[in-house]
Amino acid sequence: MAIAGPLKLNFQLLGPDGPAIGPGKALVMEAVDREGSIAAAGRALGMSYRRIWLLVESLNRQWRDVVVETRIGGGARLSPFGRELLDTYRNIERRMVNAAAGPDLDWLIAARADPD
Amino acid sequence: MAIAGPLKLNFQLLGPDGPAIGPGKALVMEAVDREGSIAAAGRALGMSYRRIWLLVESLNRQWRDVVVETRIGGGARLSPFGRELLDTYRNIERRMVNAAAGPDLDWLIAARADPD
After folding, report:
1. CB–CB of B12 and A8 under 8 A?
2. Fewer CB in 10 Å around end: N or C, chain B?
C-alpha cells in the first residue's frame, strides 16, 4: 500500500488466478531481497511461514519467469526478472501517486472535517 | 475499485478516523444518487441497511459539509457538496489510471504467465 500523506493507494495487476502483483507481494519481494531468506522475510513482515511461502509460490506461478529463487542449502533471493518486476511495479505506483497531485486533491484534503 | 483491463486500483483519502473516501463510499454515493434513497441504494449494492447506513453516516461525519441529504418523508440525495466530492474523487482516480499506462505497464501485462 503506497501511502503519500493522506493518500493511500492499492494498485494490483490481475492475472487469470487473481492479483499477480500488488502491495503485499511487493513487500514480500523487498523483504526477501533484504533478508536473504523466505523465513527471515516472513519474520520481518510478521507473517507466518505458511503465508509468505504461499505468496512466494503464487509469485513464481503467476509470472513467466521465476521471481524468488531458493538456493540449495537455504536462502532465497530475487531473480533478475523478479528485480525488474519489483522496480516496474514501484515505478508505475510512483507515477500514479504523482498523478494524483493537483488542485482537486488539495481541495479534497481541505474538505475533510476537522478532527473532533 | 477502479478496474481498467487487468489493472485494479483502490485509492483512498484518509481522515483522522480512517478512510474518508474510497471505492466503497464512491459506489454508495453513486447508488444514492441513482436510487434516490439509502435503502434502495443498499439493495442495489447488495448491502445490508445497517452497513450502508453506517457508510453514509461516516461520509457525513468525515467531511466538512453534509454529503448525503435525507428528506423528511423518506428519500435521500447527494448534496451539491457530495456531488463535487464524488466528481473530484472520480477525476483523481481516472488520472491515476491514465498515469499507469506506458511501456512499463505493457511489459508487466506481457510478463504474466500464460493461463494453465
Report:
1. yes
2. C
